[in-house]
């Protein structure tokens, strides 16, 4: 190799996992062999070769090699045995593809290089430095941060997924240090994926600042006493040895013994027949056709290659998370996954080779199996409980459910709990599930006043929980529950923090949001063909109903043990479906981590000022009374305004207003939309009724009701969040619902003033600015919107200027208001009729606005049409993070139903992506605040807003951490084409902070 040559080094292991995680599962049609990663790898490699040989688009390689990890055991394990200890084994469906990918590399006529005892990165480093010494240029095809230490003026990186070159300036921009300091930065920051310890609490930005100040890691450690921040100084001094160890782990070797020298890496033309034979064996029809055309071969004349499929030890490959992207550079280390991921036990004996096959076999097997309620056990002594707990540990998997006397987890008493275990030792299929119930405080009769008392032979609660606590907190045992957040919070109140868990409700939600119910009874009937015992059948209903602590223990055992049994069986059925549908990441990153986050927020609650609410109730009552007098005068008589029948008779019977339509019961419809339409056409009475309804609803729902939600012990209001109640991924809240307090009305803002901070604290409201418009600019790729957001321009003024030709400076408020209505209306699929009503203009004028809008921003129309077409073809749409929102009625023969589903499908990827971003921010927020040594507590989430309670003296330090975590929440999974912006401020009440 000589000056002028150019060596391409492909991170083959990174390619494998990008291909595997980025693409949906794919199996070979002839035998079901999983080949999704092979397909993605081949397509990426082919594109890279085609682009690299095109002299019009960039550099042309003269030498080329694909580098792989030989195995997980390398010299770094000898240095630090816990290195990469967090990594899971590769997914079962990926194992046979490792050998096939190596075969693919050879079929492409490319060197396939791996060296035992070393990682691919070390081999890449060795070749890169040798080529550089020979005067050649080097391109490393990877985006892995670990390789950035190699970048020089002659060595560049190339991210093929983003089509982005990475040179010295890019490394500096990303990490704040030049490539030669990346080793020291990584040594300080550590790596949770590779289990490189680093210095706890030091994030990338802090590390970069320290390196700029002290020069390098050695100087920093030698002069640590000069660090002004006491906590940081003590932390660095205490962890100096860890930092030095970490530097050895992250430093790439450049002396790997190589079987092939640089001269052997000359890029040869592809052998068309050899490559086509491999592709035909894989049944990759489209790529076969492309290669045949490029290589001028007749694919029909070439026989498929005979390939050996490697399993087990022969199928060498890196760990599950190899090549995973780096955490977002938010100023603190941010893990994309839990530090102690739970085991994922799988029932053996299925014979399934792919996730789809496993899912299919599980559905069939559990659909035919039956639950035997008579086999359920009541555990009444600690020795038997110990036996069950021991069996759960040995299995590594346990179904868990709590029974309480209330649906409020913050006040419910724990009546008992149930366990379910899949006895794989007796029945390898996993179908043999045994379950038991542990009663704790069941009572007899109907209470002490009528002769009732505590039932006999129950384990004391404290003693039972002392046995249960180590199991529930053991990260090596996977706990499976249905709607786990309730159980999590109940156990948290008893001093137990559940670790390592799965939630069958959330699994179903990820798989079928918008398509089906996710309640346990519904799931059981759908997947297990089993109708569970109804709660009313054991506890009664109505006046005859009792709380669960008064249910007889025999009945309670049948009901509660069945819940745990059903839940564990549902897990068996649903878990492989996540992998088969390519939705595991959605569940693992967006759903499961939020359980503990929301439970903690619910437990914290928020303080309200009852006096403010009482005063507001009086004001609202007076305003409502004034509206009532006006309504009676306009109607010409007194009537019950809250009665739909009487109101309909007045509006459409007596007054003969247009647009009346009767419901199935024969009454006139007086829905909000009907009244709004009448008000928009100038009728005063419907407008007054709409206003009256809003006031009375605010009074009854909030100012009157909120004091009743104050917890008797904490003196705070504890709302309950639902993770699985919307199609798009938005959270909802209840008891009380804090999501629907209007923010644009004076009355709604006054209600928010009643939410206050405690003494010595402030409430901080952090709100995403126009996040849905930013997501629209990203997904629809609208140049004008992207540029405006990047430049910080007023987006509504820019839209008005684009549409109406009005300069931004000095723009009339009315013109901007119209553009704002269109901007937001387009997201929700607004019609000309809807826009006309909103702006108070003629429908024809509104139609012209919308037409002009699409002319100025044609990309939005393209996005809307392509999204509708995708939804019609697949029955669902996806957010930018892969969440699916199903719209099964989008092909309905009913025009109004079809139109509604089309509008919803257009909005869902935008609203859902925004919801996913704030979910990611919430998951990262607690670690970010903790790493910064801050005591701020996240209390509420309301759509695009997070509310915190912060100590007065910490506000200045807390705001930047909150803002940075939220603004970088999409990273590293998605690099947004427009910047996210967060407005955050502190005040003594919610309204002032917003």
From TrEMBL:
CDD domains: DNA_pol_A_pol_I_C (cd08637), DNA_polA_I_Ecoli_like_exo (cd06139), H3TH_53EXO (cd09898), PIN_53EXO (cd09859)
Protein name: DNA polymerase I
Function: In addition to polymerase activity, this DNA polymerase exhibits 3'-5' and 5'-3' exonuclease activity.
Sequence ranges assigned to domain Exonuclease in this UniProt record: 396-580
Keyword field contains Nuclease: yes
Alphabetized UniProt keyword annotations: DNA damage, DNA repair, DNA replication, DNA-binding, DNA-directed DNA polymerase, Exonuclease, Hydrolase, Nuclease, Nucleotidyltransferase, Transferase
Example of a GO MF term: DNA-directed DNA polymerase activity
Assembly mode: Single-chain monomer with multiple functions.
Region listing for Disordered, in residue ranges: 318-354
Domain of life: Bacteria
Taxonomic lineage from the root: Bacteria, Pseudomonadati, Pseudomonadota, Alphaproteobacteria, Hyphomicrobiales
InterPro entries attached to this UniProt entry: 3'-5'_exonuclease_dom, 5-3_exonucl_a-hlix_arch_N, 5-3_exonuclease, 5-3_exonuclease_C_sf, DNA-dir_DNA_pol_A_CS, DNA-dir_DNA_pol_A_palm_dom, DNA/RNA_pol_sf, DNA_polI_H3TH
NCBIfam families per record: pola, PRK05755.1
EC code(s) of this entry: 2.7.7.7
Stretches assigned to the 5'-3' exonuclease domain: 5-268
Family: Belongs to the DNA polymerase type-A family.
Catalytic reaction annotation: DNA(n) + a 2'-deoxyribonucleoside 5'-triphosphate = DNA(n+1) + diphosphate
All residue ranges annotated as the 3'-5' exonuclease domain in the record: 376-579
Domain spans labelled DNA-directed DNA polymerase family A palm: 748-954
Biased composition (Low complexity): 320-338
């Amino acid at each position: 190799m000589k000056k002028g040559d150019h060596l391409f080094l492909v991170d083959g292991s990174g390619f494998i996992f990008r291909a595997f995680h980025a693409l949906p599962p794919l199996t070979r049609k002839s035998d079901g062999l999983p080949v999704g990663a092979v397909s993605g790898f081949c397509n990426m490699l082919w594109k890279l070769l085609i682009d690299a040989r095109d002299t019009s688009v960039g550099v042309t390689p003269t030498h080329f090699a694909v580098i792989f990890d030989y195995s997980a055991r390398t010299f770094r394990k000898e240095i630090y045995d816990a290195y990469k200890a967090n990594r899971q084994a590769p997914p079962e469906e990926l194992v046979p593809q490792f050998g096939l990918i190596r075969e693919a590399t050879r079929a492409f006529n490319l060197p396939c290089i791996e060296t035992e005892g070393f990682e691919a990165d070390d081999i890449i480093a060795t070749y890169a430095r040798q080529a550089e010494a020979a005067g050649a240029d080097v391109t490393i095809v990877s985006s892995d941060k670990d390789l950035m230490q190699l970048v020089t003026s002659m060595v560049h990186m190339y991210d093929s997924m983003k089509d982005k070159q990475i040179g010295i300036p890019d490394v500096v921009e990303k990490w704040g240090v030049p490539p030669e300091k990346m080793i020291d930065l990584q040594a300080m920051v550590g790596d949770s994926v590779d289990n490189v310890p680093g210095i706890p609490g030091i994030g990338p930005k802090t590390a970069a600042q320290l390196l700029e100040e002290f020069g390098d890691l050695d100087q920093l450690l030698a002069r640590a006493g000069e660090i002004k921040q006491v906590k940081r100084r003590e932390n660095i001094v205490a962890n100096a040895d860890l930092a030095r160890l970490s530097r050895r782990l992250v430093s790439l070797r450049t002396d790997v013994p190589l079987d092939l020298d640089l001269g052997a890496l000359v890029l040869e033309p592809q052998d068309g027949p050899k490559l086509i034979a491999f592709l035909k064996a894989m049944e990759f029809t489209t790529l076969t056709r492309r290669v045949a055309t490029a290589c001028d071969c007749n694919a029909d004349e070439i026989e498929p290659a005979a390939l050996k499929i490697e399993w087990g030890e022969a199928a060498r490959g890196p760990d599950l998370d190899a090549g995973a992207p780096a955490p977002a550079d938010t100023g603190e280390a941010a893990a994309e996954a839990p530090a102690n991921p739970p085991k994922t036990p799988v029932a053996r004996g299925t014979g399934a080779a792919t996730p789809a096959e496993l899912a299919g076999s599980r559905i069939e097997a559990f659909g035919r199996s039956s639950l035997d309620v008579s086999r359920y056990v009541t555990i009444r002594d600690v020795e038997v409980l110990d036996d069950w707990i021991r069996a759960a540990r040995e299995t590594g998997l346990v179904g868990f459910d709590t029974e309480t006397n209330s649906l409020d987890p913050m006040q419910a008493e724990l009546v008992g709990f149930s366990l379910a275990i899949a006895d794989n030792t007796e029945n390898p299929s996993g179908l043999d599930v045994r379950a038991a119930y542990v009663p704790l405080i069941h009572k007899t009769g109907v209470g002490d006043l009528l002769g009732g008392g505590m039932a006999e032979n129950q384990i004391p609660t404290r003693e039972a929980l002392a046995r249960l606590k180590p199991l529930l907190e053991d990260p090596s045992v996977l706990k499976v529950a249905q709607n786990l957040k309730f159980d999590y919070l109940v156990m948290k109140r008893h001093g137990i923090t559940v670790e390592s868990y799965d939630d069958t409700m959330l699994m179903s939600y990820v798989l079928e949001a918008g398509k089906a119910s996710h309640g346990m009874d519904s799931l059981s009937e759908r997947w297990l063909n089993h109708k569970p015992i109804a709660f009313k059948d054991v506890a009664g209903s109505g006046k005859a109903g009792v709380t669960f602590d008064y249910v007889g223990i025999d009945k309670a055992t049948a009901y509660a043990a069945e819940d745990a049994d059903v839940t564990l069986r549902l897990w068996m059925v649903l878990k492989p479906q996540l992998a088969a549908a390519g939705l595991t990441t959605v569940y693992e990153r967006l759903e499961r981590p939020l359980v503990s986050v929301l439970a903690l927020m619910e437990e914290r609650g928020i303080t309200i000022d009852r006096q403010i609410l009482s005063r507001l109730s009086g004001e609202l009552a007076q305003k409502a009374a004034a509206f009532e007098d006006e309504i009676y005068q306009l109607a010409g008589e007194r009537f019950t305004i809250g009665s739909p029948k009487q109101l309909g008779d007045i509006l459409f019977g007596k007054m003969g207003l247009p647009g009346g339509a009767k419901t199935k019961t024969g009454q006139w419809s007086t829905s909000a939309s009907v009244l709004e339409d009448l008000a928009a056409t100038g009728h005063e009475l419907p407008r007054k009724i709409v206003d009256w309804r809003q006031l009375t609803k605010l009074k009854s729902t909030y100012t009157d009701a909120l004091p009743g939600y104050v917890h008797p012990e904490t003196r705070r209001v504890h709302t309950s969040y639902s993770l699985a109640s919307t199609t798009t991924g938005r959270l909802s809240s209840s008891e009380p619902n804090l999501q629907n307090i209007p923010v644009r009305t004076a009355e709604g803002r006054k209600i928010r003033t009643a939410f206050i901070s405690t003494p010595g604290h402030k409430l901080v409201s952090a709100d995403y600015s126009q996040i849905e418009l930013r997501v629209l600019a990203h997904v629809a790729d609208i140049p004008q919107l992207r540029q405006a957001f990047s430049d910080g321009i007023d987006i509504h003024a820019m839209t008005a200027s684009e549409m109406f030709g009005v300069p931004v400076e000095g723009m009339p408020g009315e013109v901007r208001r119209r553009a704002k209505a269109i901007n937001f209306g387009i997201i929700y699929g607004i019609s000309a009729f809807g826009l006309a009503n909103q702006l108070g203009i003629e429908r024809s004028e509104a139609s012209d606005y919308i037409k002009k809008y699409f002319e100025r921003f044609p990309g939005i129309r393209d996005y809307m049409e392509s999204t509708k077409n995708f939804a019609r073809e697949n029955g669902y749409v996806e957010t930018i993070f892969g969440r699916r929102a199903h719209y099964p009625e989008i092909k309905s023969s009913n025009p109004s139903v079809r139109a509604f589903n089309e509008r919803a499908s257009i909005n869902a990827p935008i609203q859902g992506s925004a919801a996913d971003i704030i979910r990611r921010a919430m998951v990262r927020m607690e670690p970010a605040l903790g790493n910064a040594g801050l005591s701020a507590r996240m209390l509420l989430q309301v759509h695009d807003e997070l509310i915190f309670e912060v100590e007065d003296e910490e506000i200045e330090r807390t705001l930047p951490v909150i803002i940075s975590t939220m603004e970088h929440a999409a990273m590293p999974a998605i690099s947004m084409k427009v910047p996210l912006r967060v407005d955050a401020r502190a005040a003594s009440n919610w309204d002032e902070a917003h």
